[in-house]
Amino acid sequence: MIIGAMGAQPVSVESLASLTGASAVTIRRDLADLQGHGLLRRVHGGAVSADLRGRPLPYSLRAAENAEQKQAIARAVAALVRDDMSIVVDNGSTMDAVAAALAGRQVTALCMSLRAAVALGGEPGPMVSTPGGPVQPPSLRAGSAASLAALANFRADLAIVGAYSASPSGGLTVTTCDDAAIKRAILAASARVVLAATGDKLARTSAFRFGAIEDLDDLVTTRDAPPEMLDEFVAAGVTVQLA
Description:
- This protein has helices at 13-20, 24-36, 59-64, 67-78, 93-101, 114-121, 144-152, 177-188, 227-235, and strands spanning 11-12, 40-43, 46-49, 86-89, 108-111, 127-129, 135-136, 141-142, 158-161, 165-167, 171-174, 193-196, 208-211, 218-221, 239-242.
- Residues 1-8 have low confidence and may be disordered.
- The chain is globular and about 60 Å long.
- It is 35% helix and 21% strand.
- The strands form four sheets. It has a seven-stranded parallel beta sheet, sandwiched between helices. The protein has a three-stranded antiparallel beta sheet with strand order 1-3-2. The protein has a three-stranded antiparallel beta sheet with strand order 10-11-13.
């Protein structure tokens, strides 16, 4: 079974075709089917095994996964941001795409990673700040102590957050305790909260909970999100937008 050969590092379509004797077209079709059942995760050029409970993955893998969908989500989120807003931009590869989509906008932004800060502040217009202290490579997100201190002194009109998973039963979860603490502080500091997450994140869970779906005002996700899950978000008062 090809899943057994997969770990945290991606396995390419070409390698799987050589291993199984199947064509690349067949491999891509089978990978799409297995991803639909939550058994693996597609990345550019191949796949990695699914980790249904969640563990931190290398930033390069997270950035490559669902890259086009993340760009679509970023454009939809940017349309929710008005000029002169104060905003928090969470850490993560989807948040980096959001920050790039907001580049040059007249906003006051607290970015929880240097990657997001550089993407957003690369053009004149925004006022961008980051928590002080050391950053954690390779995602370049700020440490928890500095992040919590910065959020205690910031009030946001809008927060844009990410999650490893988001479901009505499991709530909003991530893979580390520190990240959960930062996200809880983001929710507390913000008048409105937007979750930006690809549809596959609505069909899994992780260990560290930072909120419930009732803590959200908006969900921006992709069209592959399970319809029954979206119905529950709407029932909880969340405005759902499909990118």
